[in-house]
Amino acid sequence: NPNGCLIRQRAQNSHPERQIEAEFRVLGDADSNRLLVMANHRSHVVEGLDEVAGLRLTIDGHTCMLTKEHDPTTIRTASPGKLVRYVVEDGAHVLPGQQYAEVEVMKMYLPLIVEDAGHIHFEQAEGTVLAAGDVLARLTLDDPSSVKLSEPFLDPLPEWLGARPSERTLDRRFAAVLQCLQCALNGYTQPRPVAELFDELLCMAADPQLPLTQARTWLAILGSRLPESLS
Rounded mean pLDDT of the chain? Predict the structure, then answer.
């Protein structure tokens, strides 16, 4: 639904297909990067910040860094600044720890160092104003086999409960199923078959206790807002 997601892992080897349901709410205004995430019958405050090195996540006060895959063949800037000059020729062979350029950051001149050995090829002209993450150069490695790529996660997902505990009262179960069907009509994937949801909705709609439980809920809301003299 618009405020949730369904993480699905395909069946692999002897592991069957699994899925994890989660819901989220934006905390603050629409541009806020803080979310209230509900999963496994628990709620967590999550804050994310997209940085040059990767995604920094703070979950319930604990920070973790989801780093981008390291590619030594692409040299990027770590912070904004101005490219002052190159100190080696385009196509020159460089060694690990060798300076290849100089940048100006906040009126300070800083050296740029390569991490691997290879032939460097420049992508930016001297004097260019750079933003964080811009590609400065490409590096043709002497030993391409030294690059370690990420491996796909093949282990099974953990056994988790739903996003939130199942609703107990009839009116709340009815509202939850109705919301799932409305989300399905809007094109969102549902954890349960639509036909099963529709049958459950009709069964609850035929229950004579439904309008009574709905009325009690509405009266309870009104009663909490009325003065004591009227209640």
Answer: 83
